[in-house]
Amino acid sequence: MTYEEFLDEIATLLTEMYDLSDEAAIKLVVDAQANDYFVTHDDTEELRTFAQAKLEAAAIYQTKQNKNETQRKQQQRQVQKKKAP
Predict the structure, then answer these.
(1) CA atoms of 14 and 74, how far apart (whole Å)
(2) Rounded to two decimals, what is the model's pTM?
């Protein structure tokens, strides 16, 4: 599949696997692309498969979840510091 079709497949899988809106799924893919996550996929056609798209969708989603959790914990620590005497 083409590079664009591969990215579209990842976005579709994100909506199906994680019940994300189209907009949220597209944003995840665009953000990953902006961070050069897909450079090797653009260069290597063998990486653009349906099986690989499913793996990439899971990885992108997990990365976003981890980032959100880290931010939540950082915010909690800031609140706790403000409460401490």
Answers:
(1) 27
(2) 0.84
